[in-house]
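Here comes just one.
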Amino acid sequence: MSLSYNRICLVGNPNTGKSSLFNQLTGLQQHIGNFPGVTVEKKVGICTLKNGQQIELIDLPGTYSLIPQSEDERVVYELLANEGHPERPQQIICVIDVSNLERNLLLFTQLYDQNWPLTVALTMTDYLNQSDLQSIQAKLETSFPDVRFVAVNPRIGDGIDLLKETLITTTAVLDRVKFGEMAIKDLLSNNVLQRRDAQSRYRRIALLLGDWNPKGSASQKKTTISNWDRFLVHPIYGYLLLLALLLVIFQVVFQVASYPMDWIDGAFGELAQIVKNQLPEGPFTNLITDGIIPGIGGVMVFIPQITLLFFFLAMLEESGYMARIVFITDRILRPFGLSGRSVIPLVSSAACAIPGVMAARSIPNYKDKLITIFVAPLMSCSARIPVYTVLIALVIPSVHWGPFNVQGLVLFALYGLGLITALMAALVMKFVIRAKDPNFLLMEMPMYRWPRWSQVSISIWNKVKVFVLDAGKVILAISILLWGLASYGPSQRMENALREIHTHDHDWSESELEKAEANARLENSYIGIMGKTIEPAIAPLGYDWKIGIALITSFAAREVFVGSMATIYSVNSDGEEDSGLLDKMRAETTETGEPRYNLATGLSLMVFYAYAMQCMATLAVVRRETNSWKWPILQLFAMGALAYLGAWFTYTIFQ
């Protein structure tokens, strides 16, 4: 009988095209979340079938077997084996790479033995000629008559409509002749049984495939891949290419993004001025023009850079080169006490430390995992880009050294600083927390492919959306709170400060008087009092109480620094036409009339933000991953001390 499915799971080995198929089936109707009770990430989307029915599609973590070896794989097992799981599906799409049939069929036969209603999506079909593809498809359909096998090419969308039609007509299967000899649940705690079962399945798979040997282009393409890898993963050329690639990426991220960023920054400044001119004076107008608009602008202005960064990361992933980066950097990480499996969490942390910390759960050795989790936040993440961008534009001249822009080189150096410091921290922890088990990196190199613009676009859209919605909500909320704390203070203290200005005979113009009054109000507001309180502690770093305010607020999230500065200087405005944040910061002076943001102060702030653990969400994830408050608290204070000392040392050198 036909069934109506409400939830379907995509299951398959890593690097089989599973995520690409998920994107084809769901388009932009997807979101990222966690499974109930655990921090394992899942992608969920809505797929509309040919009959108009909408189903929930879950892209499960890649796994080679139903017998779990990591937390990600355990989540897959629990979801599929536990009948009471809240997100248990009614059907499974098993994704099989036809260029690696023997390995992929192991997982398929395990699912088959669980009596799941199965539809198989055969991917990587462009590696076989048509006759070979038809031959193996017929062989599989004969061996598993109650399973539908559909050839698809998620890269270009071939076979997607047929797959959707198949999902409508797939019927329930209640009992099957088992392919394996033992039930999965009986194998979980017995490694010997696990090996016996795997050997038995592989023998039967070999008999099933017989002497089938594809004569398509697969072998030729694999030979081409080997030729490319001789250069790309070479112990010398591989590193030089990676270094050159990273230099180009950071040059483009900084230079190309500067044009739309200037336009967005100016547009929000003009918008604030228009609203200020149109609305009557009062607290509500000030809230909008000095709190909400700068807060939103502080998020939107960095979308071009975030988009470019995620574009390059998606291109590297789509092309297959990211796996090569993981492979060659493994050689560097081993002497520092990091497992080869630590590479992926560290690379992920370059975008965001949260998925980087979560990716460390795939490391089987607890001590290796702990070291990786501890040092991952030292990698410069996308949340630091807004801070770096403002400070670099503020104190680093836009000049060229040959083909390279100095500002781009500084950005590259900041990422290098994070990586080097993470390695040094790992080396220290190597002797503090000794890992006795040997470390090995076993991974499958994916095929090289031209990136698909549709998949790159979906990846960028999802990541930018997360930045705007998640980081944006925090920045906007703190900007509004900061406006309130910066606009009000103890009434008597505020009155005394304003009276002090007017009792002295100053030869000030009207605009200078308004600026002095605005500065006095900010200095004696609630947030100003907080900044003044910590000013003695941060003065050795070259910071004043206004920078201290931004340091306090950005401990919730690093990117809040920019929104905080925008709000502070908007509240501190003298009433003249609004200028951009950079112009306001350039105009800021010390008591001696010198620029507040000179080279020493700017570099000191960059180093501080490169090191400080200013992300409450990351600390919460570290707490969940380690099941202890000891490590996130130690992480907070250790990185805080490193940030303070590093900033002080930098300021002292360049002062």
Notes: The first helix runs from residue 18 to 26.
